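Figure 2 data, in text form.
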Amino acid sequence: MSISIKTQEEIEGMRIAGRLGAEVLDYITPFVKAGVTTGELDRLCHEYMVNVQGTVPAPLNYAPPGYPPFPKAVCTSVNDVICHGIPGDKVLKNGDSVNIDVTVITKDGFHGDNSRMFLIGEPSIQARRLSEITYECMWLGISKVKPGAHLGDIGAVIQQHAEKNGFSVVREFCGHGIGRVFHEEPQVLHYGRPGTGEELKAGMIFTIEPMINAGRREIREMPDGWTIKTKDRSLSAQWEHMILVTETGYEVLTTSAGAPAPPAIVQQNDAVAA
């Protein structure tokens, strides 16, 4: 496995990309409400990226081997959609939950990848709790990031917290290294055993993006070749940040004025690079 260690110049480029990715989610937040279509949210995000930021939406026409080109600028995954939901004529209604996944490419070619959950109107107790536990899972995983730790430490704490709360971890999709390439090594599993997997080194950048189901972990793929749903039609949630391994711990690169604060369960005692 060849994991790239980013140079200081690349790290600075990724800081900019991460902030821009997060600012797209800040921008779209007030529009995410009952009555809007996922296609309209995609249009607004796309126009903001291109016309305001001068960035390019990485998902648009993205076509890894075996997949048709992704037709939209962002992913919108509603209710039982785990990931890769294609925006369209789906109208959000009271009680829905939706993940919006944004990746920008800056003019220097760096990728900024992040996602957030949005709860529409008055969500069910289960939907709210699932989103909160998934957010905690992500941050518990982030809190394990430091030089000398292992990828398995991240997956183990995420799996433990999800399952302790009666939820399940999707295993077919994972976090990933990122830089000038959208998806690179390492794969960051959201389950596993402490002390296993690649050792973390300063200069690595990757995403942590747990997908947690309210029911069973099994998935089903829709005929469009992209949309992934829960097999048992239970709700699913996902949160995503992009993380830099620093000399002393970690730095969250996808931060912005509107990004939610870390949850109380995570103690902020990790050094953050200046």
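Caption note: The chain has a mean pLDDT of 96.
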